[in-house]
Request: fold
Amino acid sequence: MAQANIGNVTSKKYRITCEEETIIAAGEGVLSSPPPGLISSDAIVIHEPVDQVAEAAKHLASSIEEAGFRVLGLRSCGGESCKSIEWIVDTWRWLAQANASRATTVFILGGGALLDAAGFAAATFMRGLPTVLVPTTTLSAFDAAVGGKTAVNLEGKNVVGAFHNPRAVLVEPRLLASLPERPFKSGFAEAVKHSLLSGWSDMKFLESVIGGALARSPESLSQLALWSLGFKMSIVVKDPREGGLRRILNLGHTIGHVVEAASRYSLTHGEAVAAGLIAELMLAEEETRLDSSVTRWTANTIDSIGLPRSPPEKVIPSILANARRLLLLDKKRVGETIVMPLLREPGDVVLARVSIGRILSLIEVAWG
Reply:
């Protein structure tokens, strides 16, 4: 506690610390025997209406009941339709009617949209219910499930939200292995990003495990999820509210978001980030003297996954026409600059203000 006196006014400053822990567990059968201590009273299960996910939700509910706890109810929703204030209000009412209390643990099985929305509902009902997340897409299993971000859309994407860290993240690799090819590959872009931010040793680890993961090996998918989520958590614990260091996780996303939006979301997030990574590494070659071998390694890895290293030709006119408008909407914008993470070498990244004009020039050269 610090005290200050100014005239007749005395002020005291108190440091508030919040002890939070997140367990990350991955492996076949993790929903049959989740780590102990996740439930103190009873549980709610919210899941996507996809057949495999609905079956997993029922299986999880049975496991919870076999452990001696009550399941107050199951609820389903999927996609961006969940990320509305109307769905949140309906969910609050449903939680109240189910007699949920602050001791009720909310299990959420889904991809990024449902984790965002149901996580926000849990974060705000009775000032916060504990959550356990079960990511069902590679994008969430390798990245989005940790970090504590929850949100819904209001006049724009993710306008209303809260930070609410899950008590645990449980990755069942069989759910990931059941995904169709395109969304299955999409999340691997975030794993490539994490390896570049971590350094050469983790780039080598990615090389060693990616073949098995792409072949949908449960063991390899579990290893990759534990490592990728673990790397992100190593950044999040140092910057839980995204005030500084955590901005390095935007590598590939400044240009990636332009590509994604300009494609009118015909490209997946991972496809857009893959192209954005290559473009931003090219920028780093000029701005920070990044060795071109890093860009080549990244391009080869992206090729091996089956993601695009550049946008489809049919999307490029829209990117060129809309890039400046989209960059002006970037949350990292400061005046006519964007605060971007630029790699100096694997594991060494700097946050730099890059002019919008410079980014537009790069896009023009790369894809014009």
In short: The chain has a mean pLDDT of 95. Residues 239-367 form a domain with the Dehydroquinate synthase-like, alpha domain fold (CATH 1.20.1090.10).
